[in-house]
Specification:
The complex is a heterodimer.
Chain A lengths: L1 H10 L21 E3 L9 H5 L5 E6 L4 E7 L8 H5 L5 E3 L14 E10 L6 E4 H13 L4 H11 L3 H15 L1 H7 L11
Antiparallel strand pairs in A: 1-4, 2-3, 3-5, 5-6
Chain B lengths: L20 H13 L4 E7 L5 H9 L11 E3 L8 E5 L4 H13 L5 E5 H6 L21 E3 L6 H11 L10 E4 L15 H36 L6 H11 L3 H19 L4
Parallel strand pairs in B: 1-2, 1-3, 3-4, 4-5
Helix pairs in contact in B: 2-5, 6-8, 7-8
The chains are: A alpha+beta, B alpha/beta.
The complex binds iron/sulfur cluster (3 copies).
Amino acid sequence: MLKLLKEIFRTGEATVKYPFAPMPVCKDFRGKPEHKAEDCIACAACTVACPANAIGMETDTAAGSRTWAINYGRCVFCGRCEESCPTGAIRLSDDFELAVGSKADLTRKAVFTLADCACCGKPFAPAKEVDYVARLLSQSARSAEEADRLRLTVSTCPACKRAQDVHQIAGMGIALQMEAGKPVKELETTP
Amino acid sequence: MNVPVDPKTLVAEMSPVSTSEQIASMKKALLKTIQRSAYVYRVDCGGCNGCEIEIFSSITPVFDAERFGIKVVASPRHADILLFTGAVTRSMRMPALRAFEAAPDPKIVVSYGACGCTGGIFHDLYCVWGGTDNIVPVDVYIPGCPPTPAATIHGFAVALGLLEQKLKAETHVELAGEAAALPHPDIPYALRVRLEREARRMAGYRQGRDIAEEFMALLEGRAHTPGSFTLLECMMEAIAEERDPRRAEIIGRLAEVVQQAIRGEAP
Ligand code: SF4
Ligand code: SF4
Ligand code: SF4
């Protein structure tokens, strides 16, 4: 009996204090995916990576907006969104207290505006994404003109880029140049 | 031909069972005046059993949900709380409804796990109803795949009205002039990509990203401090300070990548 009591005192209390005291979680615990909308460029990489389709995007070209939405009720806390995010805008936090009484409280949304194509003026990609890519490319540009040209290129929608390429190729007269033995002019993808 | 099928068209839509006003007010009274243990009956509607294991781990001595009087019972006829787990497969719909009908009113229905809340990872399977609330009215949702025992206890506390829910629906609207910051503008983009890739190859996306961030912050910090350091010296210093041999190895490898880039070698 005494031995048993001793053993009990030695062991102490195994039960955690939670919910009266905060629950410590281990490092790199995979809890609620925390989305920092300020850093998000609405690139949709997480949307594609999410195996449970907990993250979705809807594009409304009439309103010129793209809405990112996460449903914590569907998330399986796999961390693939964090893995694929280029800007680190989404990261799994150590928050696990997600229980709610109404289902609507399980969603979080972020609305982004779309940028218009520099050529045809139709909305084609989120403005933040275009801006981010342009800045990233001009970081490694050799001159200011090249940076401007790159910015113009990324602000052009794919359809316009294709049309310009075709136009340029036709204008170059490649067959004629090759016949004359001249070097072929390089292709430029600017309007 | 692989034509995508809208899974909604494959399942018959049926309105879920609704509770009457009287039962709703009884439920409120139950929450206020419950003077005894709350009995929980667990209904497995076709989950992967991960949720069941976590429910049982939350009634073990370590988490001990029974200290709040939460007791798992063997029959729905004794239950105050019905705990639905799983994505509600076609074949488990009837048994789940029978368990719901068998429990005496007023009862609290808790939807447990990602599957119970919305269907989770199984939400678009042809054979699932996709969530408890498609068949019965749900009072509390506990997301998680599976919810940890601590999350389970929090969920029960919310269900019994002891704790407030933390999560609220939010909508962020892009502000004018909002722009994502470029990470490490002082480090050439090509080098940053090489460093991040190498760190992630060696340590995975979470720790890899953290180590690469730390390393680049160190590089930038050193570039701005007065006095001359050779890159090698400052790397050796960082490696010597590192306690964890695995991290020291990764930092060493990243330093090598920087050296390679300086020498102009291909990765
Ligand atoms: S953690 Fe996994 S399931 Fe959850 S939102 Fe991210 S990718 Fe989707
Ligand atoms: S991957 Fe990151 S930046 Fe892209 S949409 Fe998702 S959260 Fe935003
Ligand atoms: S929520 Fe996750 S752990 Fe629970 S039954 Fe569904 S798949 Fe399994």
